[in-house]
Amino acid sequence: MIIRRRRTLRGALAATAATVALTATAGTAFASGDPAGAERARATAEAEAGRQAPGGQRASASAAAEAPVETPSFSMSAVDKQTKKLYLYHPNRAGAFGPRDLVDVEFDAFADTIPVDDDKDGWSDGSWYWNKNGTLSFSWISDDLQYHQNEIGGGWNTYRMLVSPGSIGGAKEADLLGVDKAGVLWSYLAYPEGRLTPRTRVGGGWDQYDQLEGQGDLTGDGKPDVVARDRSGGLWLYRGTGDYKAPFAGRTKIGGGWNVFDRILSVGDLDADGRTDLIARKPNGDLLRYSGTGSATNVFQKPVKIGSGFQIYNLL
């Protein structure tokens, strides 16, 4: 019954994604598909996955009584490069992903989706959607499966990268970080429903990195951390401080040779051990998992191959 209900919802929501070409005010053409409809379809599919996954079928009334989950587990979004269709890969809680789940909408209008777990139940309950035309919105599905969307605003194409490692200021909501085109890192503290404070300058020099990822605590101190890859393939750890004005300590190099990968991303805890993991893709489509150790001195275990054929996707 749950699976049938999920498919019915997905079909109904996907039908709202009209296949027309939209043009942004700045003159940048959207891909075919209605961004709002695609956003709604993905949010609903993600919410249903969390309800069905082991440990994810919690009633909201009892969730508060449970111990908060500091390291969430998120689905991986994959956009087919040819069809532009969106697929979700849900964690199987055994260190890999289950079969792909088609969300039958075109998703090429989005530069990234950034899930958050603000209620600390271990599953996504909302996402920022970064549109290629520079707009940012926040969408979430309530417990009664009602879709909600909050338009944050435009001008976000000033950034090269956006990431939400968790709460950098100590509040419940996960905050947002952005690296602008001049290499300056900025932080935005988040409030309920995706509302954001004015930005705070964290520091410059981040243009040396081509990928920035983080989803929870990597070092075991309870503070969200990030990793950044430089253009020569070095991987650097920035440990969280818990101070939103200076959210990261000085960097520590934790590896080299990471330029063999064309995509690095974090979906939180993939192997169900309570620690944040990292996913890396090779150009040939091989997908590897680097399991987190919870230690600042030896951050990741040796990689484990968890899939192949992923070169057909843009991984968000």
UniProtKB/TrEMBL annotation:
<dbReference type="InterPro" id="IPR028994">
    <property type="entry name" value="Integrin_alpha_N"/>
</dbReference>
<dbReference type="Pfam" id="PF13517">
    <property type="entry name" value="FG-GAP_3"/>
</dbReference>
<dbReference type="InterPro" id="IPR006311">
    <property type="entry name" value="TAT_signal"/>
</dbReference>
<dbReference type="InterPro" id="IPR013517">
    <property type="entry name" value="FG-GAP"/>
</dbReference>
<feature type="compositionally biased region" description="Basic and acidic residues">
    <location>
        <begin position="37"/>
        <end position="49"/>
    </location>
</feature>
<protein>
    <submittedName>
        <fullName>N-acetylmuramoyl-L-alanine amidase</fullName>
        <ecNumber>3.5.1.28</ecNumber>
    </submittedName>
</protein>
<feature type="region of interest" description="Disordered">
    <location>
        <begin position="31"/>
        <end position="75"/>
    </location>
</feature>
<keyword id="KW-0732">Signal</keyword>
<feature type="signal peptide">
    <location>
        <begin position="1"/>
        <end position="31"/>
    </location>
</feature>
<keyword id="KW-0378">Hydrolase</keyword>
<dbReference type="GO" id="GO:0008745">
    <property type="term" value="F:N-acetylmuramoyl-L-alanine amidase activity"/>
</dbReference>
<feature type="compositionally biased region" description="Low complexity">
    <location>
        <begin position="50"/>
        <end position="68"/>
    </location>
</feature>
